[in-house]
Design goal:
With 140 residues, this protein is mainly β. The chain has one domain. It contains one helix and eight strands, in the order H-E-E-E-E-E-E-E-E. Strand 5 and strand 6 form a beta hairpin. The protein starts with 13 loop residues before the first helix and ends in a 7-residue tail after the last strand. The protein binds zinc ion. Zinc ion binds next to loops.
Amino acid sequence: MESPSKPQPLLATEGDRVYWSGVREHRLLVTRCRNCGHTSHPRVACACAVPAPEWVEASGLGSVYTFIVYHRAYHPAFAAETPYNVAWVQLEEGPLLMTNIIGCELADIRIGMPVRVVYDEEANGMILPRFAPAGSQSSG
Ligand SMILES: [Zn+2]
């Protein structure tokens, strides 16, 4: 029986397309305001009215800002993965990303834990930026 597929990231804007093509190349891109230097994850702008922020590559390092562990699937495609975590990681450049923490036990995830990006390929070939403890060995 075919299992239900997971919702896919929306590629609604040019910014979405730039961001996700960066991920495919294992580059985590954020936008930086040319006026104030504020760094954003795409879709979250600073207050400056200056158009066209520049794209810059983030280091891929950050820390767990907060997280939750789901023990029940709210979408059937995730049923086989429970329990699983959803986390906000704050990049060292400042922006927050919604992601998953991998490479450690759920019980070992801590707020403030240093993490680094891992480019994780889904069964359907989609590459997602997930985060693993910064000291772990797996390559990304
Ligand atoms: Zn600005």
